[in-house]
């Protein structure tokens, strides 16, 4: 019987301890002090205190300055981005020095890459020339039929439209290829500048 009573007392005490509600103290915008088990959301980041069931201070939370908090978060984010940028630059520098031993090698690599792009540009320009000739032939045929008072067939008009669309697409392809060539030149030029900086001299 004593063992049962002892266990019952322990269970009651344990339940009382875990079920003990938290008591918070906070002051609203009008200066009125409030007590409660839950702090309203609008006062969660302001000064408040956690009290024991006997009213003793357990923990005091100071007001959080939202602007300062945001500034700190932005500062930390900037530091993180800067560190990532430094790591990336270090990776690129190592790759640059491990890949090339001189600026001449950089020029050779640039020329190899440019050769591919320039071949593409030349191919597009040849296709443009052929497409223009085809379009001119179709347009000339249309002019002659109109001059002779003959009807322009739908198939001829379709050929003219298709040729115009083909030329427009080829022009877009040419612009992209030319932009790629410019990007290749700029990239290798930047690599040469960085290579000089890393080696402390203008190696050639």
Your description of this structure?
The protein has 204 residues and is of the alpha+beta class. The chain folds into two domains: 21-62; 85-199. Helices cover 70% and strands 9% of the residues. It has helices at residues 2-18, 66-99, 103-147, 154-199, and strands at 23-27, 33-36, 48-51, 57-61. A four-stranded antiparallel sheet has the order 2-1-3-4, with no helix packed on it. Strand 1 and strand 2 (33-36) form a beta hairpin. Helix 3 (103-147) packs antiparallel against helix 4 (154-199). The longest helix is centred in the C-terminal third of the chain and has 46 residues, at 154-199. The chain is elongated. The termini are far apart.
Short description:
The protein is 70% helix and 9% strand. It is an alpha+beta fold and 204 residues long. Helix 3 (103-147) packs antiparallel against helix 4.
Low-confidence stretches: 1-19
Could you give the count of β-strands?
4
Beta-strand residue percentage: 5-15%
String of helices and strands: HEEEEHHH
How many strands, what sense, and barrel or not for the largest sheet?
4 strands, antiparallel
Major sheet: order of its strands?
A: 2-1-3-4
The computed structural class is alpha+beta
Radius of gyration: 39 Å
Tell me the count of domains: 2
Measured distance between first and last alpha carbons = 98 Å
* Count of alpha and pi helical runs: 4
Gross geometry: elongated
Q: How helical, in percent, are the residues?
A: 55-70%
- Taking all residues together, what is the mean pLDDT? 83
């Amino acid at each position: 019987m004593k063992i049962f009573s002892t266990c019952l007392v322990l269970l009651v005490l344990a339940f009382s301890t875990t079920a003990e509600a938290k008591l918070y103290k906070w002051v609203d915008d009008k200066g009125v002090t409030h007590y409660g088990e839950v702090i309203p959301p609008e006062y969660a980041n302001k000064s408040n205190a956690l009290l024991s069931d006997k009213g003793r201070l357990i923990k005091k939370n100071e007001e959080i300055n939202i602007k300062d908090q945001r500034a700190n978060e932005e500062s930390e984010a900037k530091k993180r981005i800067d560190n990532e940028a430094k790591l990336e630059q270090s990776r690129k520098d190592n790759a640059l020095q491990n890949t090339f031993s001189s600026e001449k090698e950089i020029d050779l690599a640039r020329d190899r890459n440019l050769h591919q792009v320039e071949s593409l540009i030349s191919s597009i320009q040849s296709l443009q020339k052929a497409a223009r000739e085809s379009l001119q032939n179709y347009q000339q045929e249309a002019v002659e039929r109109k001059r002779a008072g003959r009807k322009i067939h739908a198939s001829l008009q379709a050929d003219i439209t298709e040729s115009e669309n083909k030329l427009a697409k080829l022009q877009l392809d040419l612009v992209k290829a030319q932009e790629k060539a410019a990007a290749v030149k700029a990239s290798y030029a930047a690599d040469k500048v960085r290579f000089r900086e890393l080696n402390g001299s203008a190696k050639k």
